[in-house]
Amino acid sequence: MAVKIDKSLCNGCGSCKESRCVRVCPGNLLYKNDSNQAEIRDKRECWDCAACVKECPRQAIAMYLPAEIGGRGSTLQAQDLGDKIVWKLKKLDGSIEEFNIQNKLLFNSNL
């Protein structure tokens, strides 16, 4: 899999010093470039965890899936709606499959 950033959609989360995807990347692989857009330091080091895909409010980050998983040229994007995350599998033929995953906040007052 490969994470790619669509530069036509990325605005670097506006004027904030650190964009949301940069904050959530566990490998510290994302940064804001001189054009105020998110960029990947080294794609080969990416863990494919999809944290940045889920965090991007503009859906500018997608995972490109290998043929075995999603079909040749398919992408996976996410939109966080608060109570759920909507995953969209966009296939090369233009069709889109959606998967809704409920977000749950687990709270244990005994911790």
TrEMBL record:
Pfam annotation, one family: Fer4_9
Keyword Iron-sulfur: yes
Domain 4Fe-4S ferredoxin-type: start-end pairs: 1-35, 36-66
GO molecular function list: iron-sulfur cluster binding; metal ion binding
Keywords from the UniProt entry: Iron, Iron-sulfur, Metal-binding
Protein name per the record: Adenylylsulfate reductase
